[in-house]
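Recap from last week: sequence in, structure out.
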Amino acid sequence: MEAQRQMETYTFGPEQIRQLMIADVIKALAKNWRKVIEGAFSVICDVGEYRKCVKEFKIPLLNTLFDTLHALCNLLLALPKDLNQYFNREELMSLDPSIRLNFIQLRTDFKTARQKINLK
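Predicted structure tokens:
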């Protein structure tokens, strides 16, 4: 009974999970991102590992958040000719285009890459 009360104390609603997780994960990862391909590979591998761990919690919202974060990381690795396709992926359409553009700006080729994007 006491353990159940303690567990209830630490239960978050979907909105709290969303706010805490996405903000904290992005902040933590962004501190270590490098604006080179090797850094982008490292980030996407880390996010992939986090996704595996999160799936074990079986919380759909959490899975969705990490799927979205993974799709954002793909913006760092996409070839310039494929960038528009990745930018307008279904997983990212719920995000404001300015958030997606912030990830594009992390690319070393962001000035030319931005010109290839069709904002939807």
